[in-house]
Amino acid sequence: MKYLLFYSLSIIGSFAYSQSKNIAKNDIPQNNLIQYINRMIGTAKYGHTFPGATMPFGMVQLSPDTDIEGWDYCSGYHYEDSIIMGFSHTHLSGTGDRDLVDVLLMPSTGKLQLEKGNKFKPDSGFCSRFSHKDEFSEPGYYSVLLKDYDIKAELTASTRAGFHRYTFYKDDTANIILDLTHLIKKKTAKVI
Fold first, then answer.
1. CB neighbours of 116 closer than 8 A, spacing ≥ 6?
2. From CA 78, how far away is CA 155, in angstroms rounded?
């Protein structure tokens, strides 16, 4: 009797397992679900996320930096901005605390500028204007058109390395700036 009960439960268990595998296989959608991911969610207001390229548990997180001063820029990117200072290799997403955002690269054309510039005076440095309609982001990939230089910047990442590709459309001197001093600063209070 003991063995009959054991064999009956084994057969029922095997049948249930095989049916669950068939159901699970048939329930998986055959279309690409990545198309439904919006990488811009959390990049505005105080979400502190970035739209760049990264892999799960990856060592690098490539993304554009739009400013570096103050709490709003914990991730290096803020949706309301219209300039890009460059593309750095490490970002924290959603933390609400400043850290990383280092090893900045920025392509440019024309006369080499070594100052960053800022959103109030974009022509005072190597930063560039951009538009969200020229920006594209999906898991593992980011691209944008840098308007001031007419350069398409593309970023992607593996689990241990980041890759940049720049397409220079202007027939002009091409530069790639490497800024190793780039970091997010605390906003300084004014003394009155």
1. 85, 86, 125, 126, 127, 179
2. 18
**24 pLDDT more than 70:** no
CB 49, CB 43: distance < 8 Å: yes
Q: What is the CB-side half-sphere exposure of residue 83 using CA atoms within 13 A?
A: 17
* Main-chain phi, psi angles of 122, to 5 degrees: -65, -25
Going by the DSSP 8-state scheme, the letter that residue 72 receives in this structure is: G
Q: What is the pLDDT of residue 151?
A: 97
Q: Give residue 64's Cα distance to chain centre.
A: 7
pLDDT (0 to 100) of residue 89: 85
For residue 172, pLDDT over 80 is answered with yes
C-beta of residue 129 within 8 angstroms of C-beta of residue 66: no
CB crowding 61-84: b at 16 or more within 10 Å, else e: bbbbbbbbeeebbbbbbbbebebb
Residue pair 135/154 in contact by the 8 Å Cβ criterion = no
Chain centroid, CA 137 distance in Å:
8
Phi, psi of 95 (to 5 degrees): -80, -30
What percent of the chain is modeled with pLDDT above 70? 74
